[in-house]
Specification:
mainly alpha
Length: 176
């Protein structure tokens, strides 16, 4: 066999391959360009959709942040109002307690004066009572002394009369 045949069949195969290859390369380049355009369109659409979603998410986040901020401000305002109301309540109770304390202090001062006056009156009454008891005892002693003096005088008069002649009864007439 001839050795050149070993080269011709592969060369013919190579030419046929190159013919189909270059024909296909143009189609492949066109298909690649079309595919790249589609990918670019899809990427652009995806980027636009992503941008739209991000914008919507940003708007939603801003809206939620605004709502949260409004809710926080409302809570803070309510808390401050509650704090102010409780502070006013405490202040009112403090003022009420101070006025009650002042009134109680006035009552205490008045009652102390009344107590002092009552003690003076009690001391004075006790002194008068003791003076009257002293007078009563003195009067009892004077009465007893007077009674003793009367008894002594009566005894003295009785003894003088019994010693006197008039005290003896006259003799009785004799019996017949």
């Amino acid at each position: 066999m001839k050795k050149w045949l070993y080269f011709i069949f592969p060369i013919i195969g190579l030419v046929v391959f190159l013919f189909f290859y270059f024909a296909h390369v143009d189609e492949a380049k066109k298909a690649q360009a079309i595919r790249l355009e589609q990918i670019a369109k899809k990427d652009a659409e995806a980027a636009a959709a992503k941008a739209a979603l991000e914008a919507k998410a940003r708007e939603d986040a801003d809206a939620r942040a605004a709502e949260r901020k409004a809710a926080d401000e409302k809570k803070a305002r309510e808390k401050q109002e509650k704090w102010d109301a409780e502070g006013q309540k405490v202040l009112d109770e403090t003022n009420r307690a101070k006025s009650a304390s002042a009134a109680a202090a006035k009552d205490i001062a008045r009652l102390d004066l009344e107590l002092l006056a009552a003690r003076k009156l009690r001391d004075q009454t006790n002194e008068e009572y003791l003076q009257l008891l002293k007078k009563v005892e003195t009067a009892k002693i004077a009465r007893r002394n007077a009674e003793l003096e009367i008894q002594r005088m009566t005894a003295m008069i009785a003894s003088r009369t019994s010693e006197s002649a008039l005290a003896e009864p006259p003799a009785l007439p004799a019996r017949k």
